[in-house]
Design a protein that fits this description.
Layout (H helix, E strand, L loop, with lengths): L4 H12 L7 E2 L2 H7 L2 E6 L10 H14 L5 E5 L3 H13 L2 E6 L5 H9 L3 E4 L4 H15 L2 E2 L5 H20 L6 E5 L4 H13 L4 E7 L4 H8 L22 H10 E7 L1 H15 L5 H12 L1 H4 L3 E6 L6 H14 L1
Parallel strand pairs: 2-10, 3-4, 3-6, 4-5, 7-8, 7-10, 8-9
Antiparallel strand pairs: 1-2
Length: about 325
C-alpha cells in the first residue's frame, strides 16, 4: 500500500488540525529491561487515548469531499476505532452508529457514547459485530466504515512519520520497530511511513498468541481464521483477517511474533512502573514482544508503538495486583 508525498502531506495537515504530534521518549528503566536503546511512541496521548483517531480524521475528510450527501455512518469496533469514528463524526456534524460485541470494554463503550455515537451491542466477538454492522448498513442505507481502509491507513501513517522524523533527528531511525496487529491498519501505516521517510527500519508485527489469525495467514500465504480468546488484548482480538492487510504484512514484515496474555500483562506493569503511563493490552504488546526477543536486539535501537491506553480500571487493577502477588 503506497502513498504519494501529497497523500501524506494532506493527511498530516488533517491530523494536525485536530491534535499535535504525540511524543516519543526514551525511558531508562525500559532500556535497562531491554538492554537496548528504546524509543516509545506515545499514541496513548491522543484525544481519544489511542492511535486510531488519526485514521478517523482522514477518512471523514475524504468522505465529506467525495460523498457530501452522507449524513449517518456505521461501523464495528472493540473500542478505539469506534472512538475514532465518533470523534471525527462529531467534528463533521454526522451521526454515527457503532456496533460492539457483548461484554465489550465498559469504559470504551462509555467513551464512545460520550462522543455522541449510538451504541449497539451484538454478537460474542468483533466479527459478529462487524457482520451485524454490515446488515444494518444495508437495511437502513447507512455508510459503512470498515476497520481497514486506505484512508484509515493514510491517517495512521502520520504517527509513524512523526516517529521516524523525530528519531532521525535524534541520531537515526531505529533498527527495528515493533507494531501490534489487530486488523492491521497500524502496521500498514508504519510501512507507508517507512517508505515515505526513506528509512530502513525493520518492522516486526505483534499478534496475540490467543488471536493469531494474522500470524497463521502470514506464514501460510492464505487467509486463516482462528479463534480470538485473548482476555487482555482486545485491540488484537481478530478472528478473521483482511486479505489486503495480510498482503501488506507479508510484503513488509521482517517477522511476526505472538505474545501471550501473561507477557502482555507483564509489559503493562513494566510500562506503569517505568513510565507511569497506562497501556491497554494491545498498547503494551510491542514491549511484550521486544522483551520476548531481547536477546536478538540487545545493544540496538528499538522502536515501540504504545498504541493506546484505554483499559478498564478493574482489569488494570487486576493486572497490577497480579504483579504485586508475584513480587
Amino acid at each position: 500500500m503506497r502513498f504519494s508525498s501529497d497523500d501524506i502531506a494532506a493527511a498530516l495537515a488533517t491530523v494536525r488540525s485536530a491534535l499535535p504530534p504525540t511524543p516519543q521518549y526514551r525511558w531508562p528503566l525500559i532500556e535497562q529491561a531491554l538492554g537496548a536503546e528504546a524509543w516509545i511512541k506515545h499514541e496513548n496521548h491522543t484525544p481519544v487515548g489511542a492511535f486510531k483517531v488519526r485514521g478517523g480524521l482522514t477518512y471523514f475528510e475524504e468522505l465529506r469531499r467525495t460523498q457530501p450527501a452522507v449524513r449517518h455512518v456505521i461501523s464495528a469496533t472493540r473500542g478505539n476505532h469506534g472512538q475514532s469514528v465518533g470523534f471525527a463524526a462529531r467534528r463533521h456534524g454526522l451521526q454515527a452508529t457503532i456496533v460492539v460485541p457483548h461484554g465489550n470494554s465498559v469504559e470504551k463503550n462509555a467513551a464512545m457514547r460520550a462522543l455522541g455515537v449510538e451504541l449497539v451491542e451484538h454478537g460474542e466477538d468483533f466479527q459478529a459485530a462487524a457482520d451485524h454492522a454490515a446488515a444494518l448498513a444495508a437495511q437502513h442505507g447507512l455508510h459503512r466504515i470498515p476497520s481497514f481502509h486506505r484512508d484509515l491507513v493514510r491517517g495512521v501513517a502520520t504517527a509513524y512519520v512523526e516517529f521516524f522524523e523525530a528519531t532521525k533527528a535524534a541520531g537515526g531511525a531505529p533498527d527495528v520497530l515493533f507494531v501490534p496487529i489487530g486488523l492491521g491498519s497500524g502496521f500498514a501505516g508504519a510501512a507507508a511511513a517507512r517508505a515515505h521517510c526513506g528509512v530502513s527500519t525493520r518492522l516486526v508485527g505483534v499478534v496475540s498468541a490467543h488471536a493469531d489469525a494474522c500470524l497463521q495467514s502470514w506464514r501460510s500465504g492464505t487467509l486463516v481464521e482462528s479463534p480470538a480468546t485473548t482476555r487482555i488484548a482486545d485491540g488484537m482480538a481478530c478472528r478473521t483477517p483482511v486479505a489486503e492487510s495480510v498482503a501488506v504484512v507479508r510484503a513488509e514484515a521482517e517477522d511476526v511474533v505472538a505474545v501471550t496474555d501473561d507477557e502482555v500483562a507483564g509489559a503493562m506493569r513494566l510500562l506503569h512502573t517505568a513510565t507511569h503511563n497506562v497501556a491497554e493490552g494491545a498498547g503494551a504488546a510491542a514491549l511484550a514482544a521486544a522483551l520476548q526477543q531481547r536477546g536478538r536486539w540487545a545493544g540496538r535501537r528499538i522502536g515501540l508503538a504504545l498504541t493506546g491506553g484505554n483499559v478498564d480500571a478493574p482489569l488494570f487493577a487486576e493486572v497490577l495486583a497480579a504483579g504485586a502477588d508475584k513480587g
